[in-house]
Write a structure and sequence with these properties.
2 domains; Rossmann fold; alpha/beta; 392 residues; 11 helices; Dihydrodipicolinate Reductase, domain 2; 6-stranded parallel β-sheet
Length: 392
Amino acid sequence: MDKVRLGIIGVGGVGTSHAKQVMDGQVPRCELVAVCDIDPERMKGFPKQKQFSDSAELIRSGEVDAVLIATPHYDHTTIGIDALNCGLHTLVEKPISVTVADAKRLIAAYKKAQKKNPDIRFCAMFNQRTDPYYIKMHELINKGELGEIRRSNWIITNWFRTEAYYRSGGWRATWAGEGGGVLVNQCPHNIDLYQWLCGMPCAITAIGGLGKYHDIEVEDDCSALFEYPNGATGAFFTSTGEAPGTNRLEICGDRGKLVLEISRGGRKLEFVRNEVPANIYLKESSSGFGAPPVWNVDIPISGGAGEQHLGIKKNFVAAILDGAKLIAPAEEGIRAVEIANAMQYSMQIGKRIELPMDDKAYQAHLKKLIANSTHKKKTDKKVNLDLSNSVV
């Protein structure tokens, strides 16, 4: 195979953007041969591609080698499982699933497909992993430049959205249509990056509000405290109702701290390095009020925000054709899902949630929310899948 025949399932705003990059030739060795959407109007812009109204038919058509799933969130699981069961390379938009329980089912399908074909690729659209700033932070942490992480916090409140935004689609900001609000729509990238940089917490406590700023049934504000196995703490603040918002990530270790601030004025990554690790200085210094002397380290970074979505698609094709290492293996996506689920669950029941969390308890909780949701999801009866454990 010298090129990848790609089908895109879901050609709304995000799916169409992906399609245009492929059709414009920005993804070498990749051809968009098919599209699928339940709304025929959305496919009018793709006269040269095979068109399907049923994802199952596209998947079984023999026309494609790989699919990119850009549907509403719940369908990521069901369509992803179907594609993997049929042996197709699969790239899924974020989040890979709405719940941990569904993410486990999706990953199990991948593992099963992998036994039949070790070269099958399963990738997530975590495009922020292509950003040079986060890549550099990841590199410095992994090299031990910060020492052991003691504290981290991310204020990511520049996700401001209006009532008009939430009215733009009937599935938006509903339990049945989307499975949540800011934690499953805007923040999966940030949550993925947070665990990619700082690791998985062992417990989460969160507070927030459902429809705090907007006329919606899901969360538009959340503040969470993370606990880590080594005693470190983290804090995560997000909202779609705050303006002007803030995007500031701070990670502190024994050997120094990293601070990334993103604003309308640009980006700045600061690295302040202790000459003597803090845990050593506090034990050995004879001064009651002294502090380790520091170096202010300049970190040259180029490349803007990186290739983002385009970079993930290029990497996906290279993984299929050349065996390249995936930037964002989809099985890692369960980590962001679990953190989001734990924050959501803690916020709603008012309790600290230990990780690994009780995914069945959260699944049952979400089913109750869906039963009372203002949006009733229509399921595709033609897809032959085991939905016995699904929330849809």
